[in-house]
Specification:
The complex is a heterodimer. By secondary structure, chain A is α+β, with helices and mostly antiparallel strands. In chain B, strands 6, 7, 8, 9, 10, 11, 12, 13, 14, 18 and 19 form an 11-stranded mixed beta sheet that branches. Chain B has a 6-stranded mixed beta sheet with strand order 42-41-44-45-39-46, with no helix packed on it. In chain B, strands 36, 37, 38, 40 and 43 form a 5-stranded mixed beta sheet that branches. The chains are: A alpha+beta, B mainly beta.
């Protein structure tokens, strides 16, 4: 029995739906707060854009020599939508072929995209926080300004909180569905063999 | 006026003394007053209190109940603090038919209304001396329009407003010969040539833009204060008037002869019909109309050439006079719109007129005669009743919406609470000292909040630490929640506060602008980013297109300017973050600084008279590197060969840093 269960086939729609949601919802959100910013400032990362108080953040960054953030500088905003579109296409192919192995491969692709994306994000944050302008006005010995990949961190007068935004949660749900269905299909195969 | 008041005050002192009980000057403040006005750090006040700045020509904004000063809005006077009236953009706001007039005396304020309630869109202010009215936008708290009034002298009964902001008025306190005529200063000449005008200024309901719709030309007398009718009396305006004796000298005596002066009742709806029907007369005149465009941050002046006048001698049945004892000052309409309270400042009683009785008297032709052809209604026919022995020197009345009136008494220096229906005095509290206007938040509307009354006092000796001969004026906040008024707080004010308005903070707070969007900055000399900054010479005019952002000005080095050049610094604040203005000042600039809001462009004109190097810098502490936000302009002798050049940071910064190490 190499065919997908009904549940497996339905899950493909759910996963594609969750991924498509990324075109309409932000993926990630970094909140910043400081005494001078009681109302808080934030940055939202979308699959093809960076929104929120980016100009405000850029204005503050130059004191400590961080690079300014510009949408145009992110190759990711081109690659990521294409990658996810291809991923959704593969999903539909898996549905048509209706083979479990296809579903497993599809899940692997998803996990790879997720892993590479997070690594890429971390790398950008590392570079952004460490690669400082040597002529920056304020230099604090030993200080780097890498925002947290996920969670809370205090940096000088700023508190930073980094977490998935609504679209990000949809993406996570897609991953949970994929892994869960893989496990279900694998169990089902084992039971039927018995 | 002052002399006259002083006389009254000494009179008051004698009367007060004789009524014995030597009061101490310490206010009887009961124990929990502080907690009622305490607004904890980080908390907001409940009301915005807009207070006229009197001879400062500004509007000050206080929070209530804390009495904290939140802002000073320049309106009719130059303000070096932010360059209003000094920078090139706002200079046109103070232009008049008599040139640039950078000061005025501001007495009254009116918040725009919808259905008889404050709507939080605009605030109007009057200029008494050079007759003008201004409109302040309550999104930005900026003066956006100033309209000059022709045929007016002392724009005192202004800018009172109708219940749907159809009109604000400007009534002249000093009657003057109209059409800018010259006339002899004799009583015969006064009677023949001097007139009082009331300007009806229409408000565009969407833009707020003001326009003199028509002027009513009245016989020469001093129009003092005014209120629009509301509810049943909507469509009418009431003005108090003194000097119906038509004296032109020593009014202190000569204008206090008659037992009764008048309240002028104008049916503005009927006047409007006459105006629409082309029954008015167009008069050639000249007056300025100045508007600030908030898209290009620039004010422009237009000259209006004509005004439509209506003469109640020719056009009948829209102006009536109601006798009112004695030298009436205040003229206030209660929240129901039914009662009109006159306050004869020399009278020992308060007359209350009923709108229904006035209309009935007009229908019945219950007139006692006429004044220059205008029918005078019989006093008793219009009267609802008189408040007996309320105090000395009644001036102004506000309302709590529960049927109670609060009248200020200048001479006896107190607020008296009384019931409008039965005219019984209910309570009285002393004020410190010599109260003029008083204000209940929303007290001039159909729905007063009725929580506080604020007294605006002229005299404060011994109330605060002494500051030499010149002392502050003050406001005093009383709770009127209970049966008894209770003094909670007094706080100093700028200028001499005349009238004030207050509005629930919720009606304004949320709409407050935080920045100007730089993407829609349409200023003629805007620099959209540092890359577009430049210096352009045309003859001896030099335009510097400059930007300000934390923490530098671009360009910050300018050379090639010559003595006698007219240098215009057009500084654009590139910030798009709330509460990040930048200032700009040049050494020896003969005007003021600029204070530029995020996304805004302002222009400072500077004409160097000597060669040298002129530092310039940011004056508003903007950031950790504010002190470094500075630059130089090199000024060479006239005819010098130094080329025009400019830059910011073009020197090798790495080398410069190395050199410092």
């Amino acid at each position: 029995m190499k065919k997908l269960s009904v549940l497996g086939r339905i899950s493909i729609f759910l996963v594609v739906g969750c991924v498509v949601a990324l075109w309409f919802l932000p993926m990630w959100r970094i909140d910043l707060a400081a005494p001078q910013y009681p109302e808080g400032i934030y940055m939202e990362i979308w699959i093809n854009d960076v929104k929120g108080d980016v100009e405000v953040i850029n204005g503050l960054n130059h004191y400590i020599g961080m690079k300014t953030i510009h949408k145009e500088d992110f190759k990711e905003f081109v690659y990521l939508p294409i990658t996810l579109m291809v991923f959704c296409g593969i999903g539909l192919l898996v549905l048509v072929l209706n083979r479990k192995v296809g579903y497993y491969v599809w899940t692997m692709i998803f996990l790879t995209i997720a892993g590479v994306s997070m690594y890429d994000f971390w790398k950008w944050e590392y570079d952004y926080g460490h690669n400082l302008n040597p002529t920056a006005p304020i230099k604090v010995p030993g200080m780097a300004y890498q925002p947290p990949l996920i969670g809370y961190k205090k940096m000088l007068n700023f508190e930073a909180l980094s977490q998935p935004a609504l679209g990000g949660w949809f993406f996570i749900v897609a991953g949970v569905i994929l892994v869960g269905v893989c496990f279900y299909e694998w169990k089902r195969t084992k039971n039927q063999l018995r | 006026m002052t002399k006259y008041l002083l006389t009254l005050m000494s009179l008051g002192a004698i009367v007060g003394f004789q009524s014995c009980k030597m009061k101490t000057t310490e206010a009887a403040v009961s124990g929990d007053a502080a907690s009622k006005v305490y607004v904890a750090p980080g908390k907001y006040d409940e009301f915005y209190n807009f207070v006229s700045g009197g001879f400062s020509g500004q509007v000050s904004v206080y929070g209530l109940p804390s009495g904290r000063l939140l802002k000073v809005i320049p309106v009719f006077s130059q303000n070096p603090e932010n360059g209003y009236g000094f920078n090139e953009e706002t200079k046109p706001m103070l232009q008049t038919s008599h040139g640039f007039i950078p000061w005025d005396d501001e007495h009254h304020l009116a918040l725009s209304q919808t259905n008889g309630e404050h709507d939080g869109r605009w605030l109007f202010a009057n200029a008494n001396n050079t007759p003008r009215v201004a409109r302040i936008d309550l999104k930005t708290f900026k003066t956006v329009e100033v309209l000059e009034l022709p045929n007016s002298g002392g724009n005192h009964s202004s800018p009172f407003i109708t219940e749907n902001s159809e009109y604000i008025v400007g009534g002249t306190r000093f009657s003057v010969p109209i059409a800018d005529q010259e006339a002899a200063l004799t009583q015969a000449s006064f009677k023949a040539n001097f007139k009082s005008t009331v300007s009806f200024i229409a408000i565009d309901p969407t833009t707020g833009r003001m326009k003199i719709d028509f002027q009513v030309v009245l016989p020469g007398m001093d129009l003092d204060l005014s209120r629009a009718g509301k509810g049943p009396s909507h469509g009418w305006f009431f003005f108090s008037t003194y000097n119906t004796e038509q004296a032109n000298t020593l009014l202190e005596v000569n204008a206090s002869q008659k037992d009764k002066d008048y309240i002028v009742a104008i049916n503005w709806k009927k006047a409007q019909e006459y105006a629409r029907a082309g029954k008015g007369k167009k008069m050639a005149t000249e007056y300025y109309h100045n508007t600030l465009n908030e898209e290009n941050h620039t004010a422009t002046s237009e000259v209006e050439k004509e005004v439509l006048t209506l003469d109640p001698n020719e056009l009948k049945d829209f102006v009536y006079l109601i006798p009112c004892p004695k030298s009436p000052h205040g003229c206030d309409v209660d929240p129901t719109g039914e009662y009109i309270i006159g306050s004869g400042k020399l009278a020992a009683l308060i007359p209350v007129f009923a709108y229904q009785k006035i209309t009935k008297a007009i229908a019945d032709k219950a007139f006692e005669g006429d004044y220059y052809g205008i029918p005078v209604i019989k006093y008793e026919a219009a009267l609802h009743g008189e408040v007996q022995k309320p105090g000395l020197g009644p001036l102004h009345t506000e309302f709590d919406g529960k049927g109670n009136a609060y009248t200020s008494f200048f001479v006896s220096s107190e607020i008296v609470k009384w019931n409008i229906k039965d005219l019984k005095v209910l309570d009285r509290v002393p004020t410190y000292y010599s109260i003029g206007h008083l204000m209940v938040p929303g007290g001039d509307t159909k729905k007063p909040y009725g929580k506080y009354v604020v007294a605006y006092n002229k005299i404060t000796k011994d109330r605060y630490l002494p500051t030499g001969p010149e002392l502050t004026q003050s406001a005093q906040l009383y709770s009127i929640d209970g049966d008894k008024m209770q003094l909670l707080l007094d706080y100093p004010t700028i200028g001499e506060p005349h009238y004030a308005q207050a509005i629930a903070a919720d009606k304004i707070k949320a709409q407050s602008a935080k920045i100007y969007d730089i993407n829609v900055n349409k200023h003629q000399y805007v620099s959209m980013g540092e890359k577009t900054t430049k210096v352009v010479r045309a003859g001896n005019r030099v335009d510097v297109y400059m930007t300000a952002i934390r923490s530098h000005l671009t360009p910050d080095n300018i050379e090639g300017i010559q003595v006698g050049d007219e240098v215009y610094f057009h500084v654009t604040n590139l910030e798009q973050d709330w509460d990040i203005p930048h200032g700009f000042a040049v050494k020896h600039a003969a005007n003021a600084e600029l204070l530029i809001m995020p996304g805004e462009t302002n222009t400072l004109k500077f004409v160097p008279t000597k060669a040298g190097v002129y530092p310039f810098y940011c004056t508003d502490f903007c950031s950790a590197l504010h002190q470094e936000m500075q630059g130089y302009m090199r000024v060479s002798p006239k005819g010098s060969s130094v080329p025009l050049k400019w830059h910011t940071g073009k020197t090798d910064s790495a080398a410069a840093v190395a050199a410092v190490r």
